[in-house]
Every structure is written in structure tokens, then in C-alpha cells.
User: What shape does this take?
Amino acid sequence: MSAKPKVAFFEFTSCEGCQLTVVDSLQDHPELLDAIEIVNFREAISRRDHDYQIAFIEGSCSRPSDEATLKAIRAQAGMVIELGACAHLGGINTIRNRQNLDDVRHYVYGDKADWYETYPARPIHAVIDVDAAIPGCPIDRDEFIMAVTQLLQGRMPQIPDHPLCIECKLKENVCVYQRGMTCLGPIIRAGCDAICPTYGDGCEGCRGMISNPNFDSLREVLAEHGMSEDAIKAKLTMFLTYQMMDRGGIGDDNGATNA
Ligand code: SF4
Ligand code: SF4
Ligand code: SF4
Assistant: This one.
């Protein structure tokens, strides 16, 4: 029997972009491929073993039938890691949580709507216990490699919990607010190398909020820069709907909840 840790990748509601980033990242790190045994990864291999120690889960839980699969993964794996914003935050899938789900289902599936089960999208940790998360939409390549390396060393992945603005300032970027744009950097978790501001765009929050975000101050700043309440709400709910609703911080449009 191989002494290498057995690793599996699974996807739920997602675009699979984070798994593609994993494939891309591992191509440059053959030493990690030598150190693990990948036993289940639909995106990359045909092997489908259900004997593994580490499970990476991409995607949000958006159907009742997802729950049994997630619980089976949790029962098997010693370590479960959320992979990317859909798994970690519910991601953009949770935008629909603010809508009437019957309306959404009919809009997408038309007269076949009843064929498809659905319910409010949730991050994986809302359904099963998870051990760590690798944030981002998609995940950051270097952070993924660092996380796998730390896991192999018996350490938990270390994910920053300070605002993106710190990282952005260290890169000596001109703040996008000074260029007439807006940005969620003050409340968003660093770790992506402030890639969006660095390339001239505001942060949309794909890495999720830090643990002590100052919403009131951010809302004031966004309003001072000309955003209406509706526009602020739309900006804050692109990736953060679940986190915001969990904190009771949005108010929703149609009585929908995270539950
Ligand atoms: S986090 Fe983004 S890139 Fe990753 S699966 Fe979800 S939508 Fe795709
Ligand atoms: S561009 Fe965004 S992340 Fe950078 S300093 Fe300004 S608000 Fe902060
Ligand atoms: S700057 Fe913001 S939106 Fe862009 S990758 Fe980083 S956390 Fe995500």
C-alpha cells in the first residue's frame, strides 16, 4: 500500500474553474504530484476511488441531494478543504438566495422547472464541518500550492485575515477610489496579491470578508463616491450574499433566507 496521502477532488455547484486552476498549478509542481496520490478527480483523471484521506471540495451546496454526498465525503476524509469562493462563501451562486427561487427556476428551466431540485445555495461548511478553506474565484495558484505543502507538513493552511488594502498599499498601487472607481478592499481578506486593483479594477470581494469588517465605514465611503443604496447592495452581494445574510446585514428583497 502506498504511504503517500490519498487525495480526492469533488465538485458541487460551480464552474469548475478552481479545479482547472489546480490542474494548472500542479503542472508546475511535479514534486507535489510525487508526494501525493490523487485517487479521484473527475476533471483530470478517470480513476474513481473512494478511499482517501484529504478531500478538496469545489462548489456550493445547492440541492437537497448534495447533502448526503457531502456527508459521505466527510465520513471518509480526515481532512476536508473548501476550494474556492463557491465552496467557501456559497459564491456567486448565492445571488439567487435573494430572489424567489420558484421564479429563478422557471426563468432558467422554463416549463421543465419541476424536473430540477434546488434550494438556497450555501457554502460547504453550512452542511458539514470543514477543516480549512482556500478562498478566491478562482483560487490563487500559489496559495493552493502553499496550502498543499502545509498539509503535507502536518500544518493547517494559513490564510490571511487582514484587509486587502494592506496588500494593495504594500504594492504601492494608486487606490482606485482616487481614480473615480469603487472597491471592497477595506473589508476583504488579503492573499490574492491585490490582483484586481493592481490591474486597475476594484475588488469585488471573491475572497470573502475578514473576521471584523467595518461595514458602516465602507457603506459611507461607497455612498460618498456616488453609489446608491441599491448599487451598494448589489456590489456587496456578488460574492458575499451568504456572509451578509448570515450576519443579518443585507435585508433581502423577497423574504428568502440562507436556510
Ligand atoms: S469559485 Fe469561481 S472559479 Fe471557482 S468554481 Fe466557483 S465560480 Fe468557478
Ligand atoms: S484600491 Fe481597493 S484595496 Fe487598494 S487601497 Fe484602494 S480600497 Fe484598498
Ligand atoms: S482583488 Fe478582490 S475580487 Fe480581485 S481576486 Fe482579490 S479578493 Fe478577489
Observations:
- Residues 252-256 have pLDDT under 50 and may be disordered.
